[in-house]
Amino acid sequence: MKLLLASTSKLFGQKYLEYLREEIEVFFNHTDQIVFVPYARPGAISWDDYTAIAREGFLPFRIKVKGIHELDHPFRQLSDFGGIFTGGGNTFLLLKTLYETEHFTLLREKVINGAPYMGSSAGSNVAGLSIGTTNDMPIVYPPDFAAFGFVPFNINPHYVDPDPTSRHMGETREQRILEFHHFNPQPVIGLREGSWIQVSDKLFELKGPYTARLFRRDSIPIELEPGRFDLN
């Protein structure tokens, strides 16, 4: 399996996908066209408009982008494309739409069988075991919280460390993940902005300039250094 799971598609002060440019050039170096999954964005932007943003973002790589909703026969046509990119937005909406369009099983089978998969934010969330560690509001309800299960853990994109100067009295991101572990056993990786996880076969690698926060049930959270890692 070949995965590129990013916390975000855009860093402050940068263009769309700019910080991932070198990584994307290598990741999709064997194809000139990919399928984009635009289902995570609510009504403020159409699937066509969201696909247009992704299409422009991939111009520097000379890679053509086609929205999965633009395919007349996706179950037959998807094999014509050399990879898949699922964009960010609302994870609940994304998963609900994947189930409703019956594209959940289609995409899962394609990636398991070798199609490169890139996700950002919500697109990375659905690569994990469930969407239970998303930061999004449940504006809609998917039939199940089970996600693709490409990796044996959950991801928390946009992970934010506690601000010691803040007067906010609500839960920190870490506290929310510990609450998740009160009911769920799988590890969770808090992925900070500017970081991404790359998977090749069964090898996991944290990339980018920052550590990630690794949470295991009934264990003290630790900092995961950039580089190869396993959860055993």
UniProtKB/TrEMBL annotation:
Belongs to the peptidase S51 family. Gene3D superfamilies: 3.40.50.880. It holds the Pfam family Peptidase_S51. GO terms for biological process: proteolysis. The lineage of its organism: Bacteria, Pseudomonadati, Bacteroidota, Flavobacteriia, Flavobacteriales. It comes from Schleiferia thermophila. This is Dipeptidase E. Keywords: Hydrolase, Protease, Serine protease. GO terms for molecular function: serine-type peptidase activity.
